[in-house]
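Re: your question about NADPH-dependent FMN reductase-like domain-containing protein

S., sorry for the slow reply, the queue was backed up all week. Below is exactly what I fed in.
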Amino acid sequence: MLADRVTARVGELARRRDATVTVNVIELRELATEITTALVSQLMGPKMTAAIETLAAADGLIVAAPVYKAAPSGLLTSFFHVLDNDLLIAKPVILAATAGTARHALVVDEQMRALFAFLRTMTVPTSLFAASEDWSDTDLDKRIDRAALELALLMESGFAHKVKDESWNSYQHSFGSAGGSETTVNLDTDLMRLAAGGAAAVKPRV
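Result:
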């Protein structure tokens, strides 16, 4: 419900700015079996592959999770754990969580934001959290408006595309990372030759 409200607001803002937003929803409960398989074997099933392609093509993300036992859903964290570390570089992201009590309000900033910082995304400044009593509170609407505008502006700026076009080589990528889009790895190195079964060059000591 929280993700739906944010998505609707981003769409409204886009229309006001003479733009359109196409929304693709990834329901992780439908991927639960494939997430588990990828977690223990690194094998991606067809639904996971489709989800990864959706993320790779996205200009921005809205990531929402329920809170269980003072932490975001394990299904959500497992999903992002199995993704390529380079897949989401510089993509703008709204982080959101819901829980039955306001005691979990810091889960977004203390746990989710750390995960997405590791993935090198561009998380918007405003994080969203909704406890049971927040759904009818106008303050939640204000926070949603603020986060939606931040996401819309970042997507409009094309920041992620500019990073990829102008600075992609400054990141340390593994071969075939970012869903296979990063393949400009120097294969003519000792390490890569050894990995391919060849011989490394030996420098004589002086």
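The radius of gyration is 20 Å. The first helix runs from residue 2 to 16.

Happy to talk it through on Thursday.
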